[in-house]
Amino acid sequence: MLDGKRAVITGSTSGIGLGIARELASHGADVVISGFGDPKTIEKERVSIELEFAVKAYYVSADLTDAAATRQFIEEAAQTLGGVDILVNNAGIQHTDRIEDFPIERWDAIIALNLSAVFHGTAAALPYMKKQGWGRVVNIASAHGLVASPNKSAYVAAKHGVVGLTKVTALETAGSGITANALCPGWVRTELVEKQIRAIAQNEGLEVEDAARQLLAEKQPSLQFVTPKQLGGAVVFLCSEAADQMTGTAMSMDGGWVAR
């Protein structure tokens, strides 16, 4: 379905981003993955994608908290792939604290990676998409792009910003063959969420799995985690012909979180 398409996925050396990269590759897209981690592990994942799905997979490193580096990353990825058809802005970090105690440097870092990098990456990729008359921008927002939780001021602000930026991107590209949509996952059992689960377990004297169920029960009525593969499937759908007229949306995949 995506044979010959060229996809760039940020924050894709593990977790959600890697799941999305693998799903896109499974449908025929060549991919550029990026992110931090052990070089040997990253190379193993890159080779695995190529061998399993018979596509080209590349790793390009960049500091996406830096505006110029983010734009250069897209240029390098485009040169590597021969263009950009699909951009998935997924990279993100988290920190929790009350507003009055929130470290300024953590606020700046979260806004830089979770929001500003989405803007700079999109700005650099759109000329490629406009030139060819087709493109897909998929921004991984969050349930926190639609609703708030205490102690997550920077993350909530950034993800709300991503949803707004997605709408503007959609309006500016309407009718051009380019679409822009945001996916808003609930709890996905990534390393970021594992840290929260372990903190609950430690603070309340619970087993890890009991803490995980408690975390889900607070927000996610399905009491089940969203999986990276499910999110990858949603991205594939947004890249399909069936989604040609879906643009500017914020799609929830949250087990009922924002339906409360």
**What's the number of helices?**
8
Counted up, domains total 2
CATH homologous superfamily name of the largest domain?
NAD(P)-binding Rossmann-like Domain
Helix content: 40-55%
Mean pLDDT: 97
SSE ordering:
EHEHEHEHEHEHHHE
Based on DSSP secondary structure assignment, what is the total number of beta strands?
7
What is the percentage of strand-forming residues?
5-15%
Overall form: globular
Quickly name the level 1 CATH class of the largest domain. Answer: Alpha Beta
Which architecture of the largest domain does the CATH hierarchy give at level 2? Answer: 3-Layer(aba) Sandwich
Low-confidence stretches: none
| Radius of gyration using CA atoms only | 18 Å
Strand order in the largest sheet: 3-2-1-4-5-6-7
Q: In short, what is this structure?
A:
This protein has 260 residues and is an alpha/beta fold. The protein has helices at residues 15-26, 39-53, 67-81, 104-132, 153-173, 191-204, 208-219, 228-238, and strands spanning 6-9, 30-33, 57-59, 86-89, 135-140, 178-185, 250-253.
Describe the structure.
With 260 residues, this protein is an alpha/beta fold. The protein folds into two domains: 6-187 and 227-259, NAD(P)-binding Rossmann-like Domain (Rossmann fold, 3-Layer(aba) Sandwich); 189-225, no CATH class. Helices cover 50% and strands 13% of the residues. The protein has helices at residues 15-26, 39-53, 67-81, 104-132, 153-173, 191-204, 208-219, 228-238, and strands at 6-9, 30-33, 57-59, 86-89, 135-140, 178-185, 250-253. It has a seven-stranded parallel β-sheet with strand order 3-2-1-4-5-6-7, sandwiched between helices. Helix 1 runs parallel beside helix 2 (39-53), helix 1 (15-26) crosses helix 8 (228-238) and helix 3 runs parallel beside helix 4 (104-132).
